Amino acid sequence: MITTLSLLFALLSVLGVVWFIAKLPADFFQHPRHHRHLIDPNRYPNLHFICKTIRNILGFALILAGIIMLILPGQGVLTIIIGLIVADFPHKDRWLRKLIRFPAVQKGLNLLRRKLKQEEFHF
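Above: the chain's sequence. Below: its structure in token form.
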């Protein structure tokens, strides 16, 4: 039972990472983007706070899962990158740039984009 759940979560993780990377624009890493708010923070401050909190919990959970996947099987670096993209904290763009400056990371991201028939990322 535990093995089945572990395999299921591993499969969902891979599919989620692949889907997320396919949805990013090719120039995502060239131009820093400020997050577009789905909920107007001026009109619904409480709901905005709740959504931002959920987003940060998800982002930090992905970062933690990615760190764990550096030791265990999984795509740890890609999961950490997605966690950094999702989370909202000071200096996150600096950490993201440090992580994607490695040629092996850039090559892996673009290899995935090619397999998905998406335009490669511009770094």
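The radius of gyration is 16 Å.
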